[in-house]
Amino acid sequence: MRIQRAIIWLLFSLLGIGLLLHEIEATKPRRILLDTDVDTDDFFALLYLLKLNRSEIDIKAITINTNAWTDAGHAVNQVYDMLYMMDRDDIMVGVGGEGGISPNGTIYPNVGGYLPIIEQGMSTYGDCRYRQAIPIGLGGRLDIDTNYGLRRSFLPQGKRKYSPLRQPTTQQVMIDTISNGPTTVFVIGSHTNLAIFLMSNPRLKKNIEHIYVMGGGVRSKNPTGCCPKNANSCTPKQCGDRGNMFTGYTSNPYVEFNIFGDPFAAYQVIHSGIPVTLVPLDATNTIPITEQFFKSFERNQHTYEAQYIFQSLKLARDTWFDDQFYTSYFMWDSFTSGVAASIMRNSKVDGENEFAEMEYMNITVITSNEPYGVSDGSNPFFAGRSIPKFNLQKDGVHSGHVQQGLRDPFCFAKNNTKKCQDGYTKEVTGDPDGVRVLVATKAKPNQLSNSLLDREYFISFLDVLNLPRNAGRFNFTTEFPYYKEVLYKPDFGMRKLGKSVVFDMDMSAGDFISLIYLLKVPVEVINLKGILVSGTGWANPATIDIIYDILHMMGRDDIPVGRGDVFALGQPNPSFTAVGDCKYIKAIPHGGGGLLDSDTLYGFARDLPRSPRRHTAENSVKYGAPRDTDHPELRQPLALEVWQNISKSLAPGSKITILTNGPLTNLAQIIQSEKNLSSVVENVYVVGGHLSYSRKDLGNLFSVPSNEFAEFNMFLDPMAAKVVLESELNITLIPLSVQRQISSFPEILKRLQLKKKTPEAVFTYRLLSRLYRLQQKHRRYHHLDTFLGEILGAVILACDQHLNPTFKVKPVNVSATGDVSKDGQTIIDAVHGKLVKVIESVDNRKYFAEFANLLGEKKQTAVIGSFNQQKRIWSTPPANHT
Ligand SMILES: *[C@@H]1O[C@H](CO)[C@@H](O)[C@H](O)[C@H]1NC(C)=O
Ligand SMILES: *[C@@H]1O[C@H](CO)[C@@H](O)[C@H](O)[C@H]1NC(C)=O
Ligand SMILES: *[C@@H]1O[C@H](CO)[C@@H](O)[C@H](O)[C@H]1NC(C)=O
Ligand SMILES: *[C@@H]1O[C@H](CO)[C@@H](O)[C@H](O)[C@H]1NC(C)=O
Ligand SMILES: *[C@@H]1O[C@H](CO)[C@@H](O)[C@H](O)[C@H]1NC(C)=O
Ligand SMILES: *[C@@H]1O[C@H](CO)[C@@H](O)[C@H](O)[C@H]1NC(C)=O
Ligand SMILES: *[C@@H]1O[C@H](CO)[C@@H](O)[C@H](O)[C@H]1NC(C)=O
Ligand SMILES: *[C@@H]1O[C@H](CO)[C@@H](O)[C@H](O)[C@H]1NC(C)=O
Ligand SMILES: *[C@@H]1O[C@H](CO)[C@@H](O)[C@H](O)[C@H]1NC(C)=O
Ligand SMILES: [Ca+2]
Ligand SMILES: [Ca+2]
C-alpha cells in the first residue's frame, strides 16, 4: 500500500498536479475573524483589511474584546456603523455574552469576556485588576468609546444594532465562524475571547490556520520618554522599557497594553499549538506616525474611510497629552494588519513580507511573578483552594504573585529593582515553556530611498485606503440629499417659569425616563436649567450622547449638559489621576442589566433622533487642554462649569432645587468648591439610601453579598454621600423602601398603555415593557425594578402635594470608611446623624396616574419623534415638509 501511494504521489508530482493543487489552495480567499478592542488604531486596521482584494482576504466576522480600551455598547455601535458605511452588513459581529466560569473551572457557554480570565466568575461584574491601567475619561475610554466625538458626526447609521439577549455573542460568533472552515484569527486587543474559545472548544482548534497578534514586547526598547542628550535635568520615563504601559510603567516596565489586559489568556493563545505570528512593540516602535506621513495623509483623502481615519488621527494628535505625538504614536494594529495580509498573500515560508522583517524566537508569556508556589493571596487561581483552578500546577509558572493594580507594593521592592513582569512576552532559551513564534522585529524602510515616507507600509496604507475599490458609500451627512443640522430651542414667550431645577443623573434607565418626565412638567412648574452627569454609576461617560438625543427629541437643545467626574471621590491614582481604582463601580455588571444595556438604553438609543450636540474631544488651552483643537467652541462642558453658570445667572433671591438620581459625586464636588452653597440651593432631593428596620430589610446591592444593607447610589460613592450628608443643605431623601412601593411594572405599563398618544409616551412604554420582559426572562435582569423606582424622585419633585407624601425628619449618617461590606449604608444615628426629610410613603394610585397622564399630554411634546422621522425629513425636499 505504502509503496503504491508513494508511486502515485511521485507521478502526480512529475505531472505537476501537486503544484496545481497547491495553487488552487493558495488562491482561495483567507477567511478572517478579527477580534478587536475597537480602539482608534483598530479601525485603521479594520478599514484597511476591508479594502483589500476580497478574493484574497475575506473578513467573515468581528468579535469585540470588551475588557480593554472601549466599552461593549459603544464599541458595537462603532463597528456596525463602519460596516454599514463600507456596505458590509454581511459581516457577523459578536459582542458580550452572559456566561461565566464556575469556581471549579467549568467554562459555561457565552462568556462575555468583560473580565480577564483570572477575575471571571459566574457574572459580568468583577475587579479591574489589569484594566485599571487604561484611562477612563479624556484620552481614555471616553474618547475612544465616542472616537473623540467623530463617530456620530461622520459615520452613517444602518439597521443593525445591539438588542438585549438577541445580540450574537462573541463565543457564538467564534464557534460559527471557525467551525465553518479554515480560519485565520487576528487578535488586536487583549486575548480573553480567543483564550476562552480555545479552552472550551479544543476540537475546533484544528480549524484555526494561524493567529496573528499585535501585542507584547520581546526585545523592544521603548523610544519614548528618553532624555535628550544635552538636557540639564530630565526624568527619563519609559525610555528603554520593554513595554508601553505609560500609566503604570513604574510597577511593570515589561508589559504592553494588549497583553496586560489578560496575561493568562495570552498565555493560552501563544501556547495553543496553533502557529502564531507576533507583531510586538519591537516592530511597531519602528513605525511611528511621522510628521511627513501625517502631512502626506492630509493631502490624500479620496475616500470616506481615508477621511474618517485622518480625522481620527488628527484629533488624537491635537489632544495628545504632550508634544511628542510624532514620536510616541505608532502604527500598532494597522501595521499588524498590513504585515499579516502581506504574509498571507505571499504564502512564503518564514513569513517573508513587504512590510516587516521577521525572525523566529522562542517566547512565553509571564502570568505571575517568581517565586512560584508561594500563595500570598494575590492569585485567585490558587488562593484558598485545595485544587488550583483549571488544574494548574501547584508550583508552576502560573502560581506566583499576580500583580494587583498599579501600586502593588510587591512590584516596588525596597531596592527598587523588583518590578512586576505580568504580561511580559519574554524570550526564553532552552526552557521547555518556550514556544517558537514568528516575530516581526522591524518595519521595512521604503524601497524608494528619496521618498519622504520612510516606511514601505506607509505607502501601502495610503494607497489601499484611497482605492476606489470596496470604498465607503457615504458619510452621515452625504447619505441624505437634504441633510440639515437643526438645534431646537423653545420659545416660552411671556410665560412665567417655575422653580429652577438641576438634574444630576448617572444615566441608568430610570434616569432617562425621569428626564423625559421632567421635560414634560409644565415650564411654569419646573424650569429645568441644566443636567449634570456622573460617570461613576450605571453607564459609561460616553453615554452622555443619549441625553443630548433625548433633549433634541423634546426640542430642548437649549439645556446645558455638564459632564462630571469619572471616578468616585478618593479613587483616582494620586500619582496619575487619569487612572484609578474601581473599588465601588466594580459592583455594576458589564453585560446584561448593567453597563452594556445602559450604554445602549436597552437597544433603544439608536431609535432616538440624533442631536447635533454630542461628546467631543474638541478642547481649548483656556480650559486646561494641551493645545487648541480646530473647534474648541464645541467643547463638552464640565458639570462644575454648568453649575457655576446656572448659579451665577440666577435672578436675585431665587434658588435652585437639585434632584440627584445617581451617586453623589457631582454634588459633593459642588459642595467642596463653593463656600456659600446654601444661599443658592433651596432643597436637594436625593433618590437613594436605604434605612433598614430589620435584618430582613435588605438593600439592593446584589453584587456585593457581604454588604446587605446598602443601596447602590450611596455605595457607588460613599465618600461623596458623606460630604453631602455633612453639608448645610436641606435634604429630602427618597429611599429604597418608598421606591419599592411604586416599582410595579404591570401597573405602570397598564397606565401608559392608555396614554400612548405622544412619541415620548410610546418610547417610554416600549422601554419599560422591554425592561419588564427581560426581568421575567433572564436572571441577569432580576434587579430592573430598581430603575423603575428611580422615577419617583422626579414625580415627587414635580407634584409634591398631589401624591400626599408622608415623611419624617430623621438623623441620618452614612458609612464611608473604606470597608466595602459597610460602605454606603445609611443608618439612623441620633448622635452624629444629619436631620433629613425622609419620604415614607406616597399615594401609589395618584403616582401612576400622574406619571402616565403627563407623558400622554400634547403640551411640551416631542418636536421630532425618532431617527426614522429624521431620515425621512433629510430625504425629502424642504418644500414637502409638513
Ligand atoms: C484579486 O485576487 C484574485 C485572486 O488572487 C485575482 O485573480 C484578481 O485579479 C485580484 N483582483 C484584483 C483587482 O487585484
Ligand atoms: C463544576 O461545578 C459545576 C456546578 O457549578 C458542576 O456541574 C460540574 O460538574 C463541576 N465540574 C467539575 C469538573 O467538578
Ligand atoms: C462627509 O463628506 C462630505 C463630502 O466628502 C464632506 O464635505 C463632509 O465634511 C463629510 N462630513 C464630515 C462630518 O466630515
Ligand atoms: C533587590 O531585591 C531582590 C529581592 O527583593 C534581590 O533579588 C536583588 O538581588 C536585590 N538587588 C540588589 C541590587 O540589592
Ligand atoms: C526554540 O525551541 C525549539 C524547540 O521548540 C528548539 O529546537 C530551538 O533550538 C529553540 N531556539 C532557540 C533560539 O532557543
Ligand atoms: C455659560 O454661560 C455663557 C453665557 O450665557 C455661555 O456662553 C457659556 O457657553 C456657558 N457655559 C457653560 C459651560 O454652560
Ligand atoms: C452667603 O449668601 C447670603 C445670601 O446671598 C449672604 O447674605 C451672605 O453674606 C453670604 N455669605 C458669604 C460668607 O459669602
Ligand atoms: C431648610 O429648610 C427649613 C425649613 O423649610 C428652612 O427654615 C431653612 O432655612 C432651610 N435651610 C437652608 C440652608 O436653606
Ligand atoms: C457617623 O458620623 C460620625 C461623624 O460624622 C462618624 O464618626 C461615625 O463613625 C458615623 N457612624 C457610622 C456608623 O457610620
Ligand atoms: Ca487594539
Ligand atoms: Ca440612576
Automatic annotation (TrEMBL):
Signal sequence range: 1-26
InterPro entries to which the protein is assigned, alphabetical: Inosine/uridine_hydrolase_dom, Ribo_hydro-like
Pfam families reported in the protein's UniProt record: IU_nuc_hydro
Domain Inosine/uridine-preferring nucleoside hydrolase: 32-368, 501-848
Name of protein: Inosine/uridine-preferring nucleoside hydrolase domain-containing protein
Top-level taxon: Eukaryota
Homology family: Belongs to the IUNH family.
Record-level Gene Ontology MF annotations: hydrolase activity, hydrolyzing N-glycosyl compounds
Organism: Papaver somniferum
Keywords from the UniProt entry: Signal
Gene3D superfamilies with a match to the protein in the record: Ribonucleoside hydrolase-like (3.90.245.10)
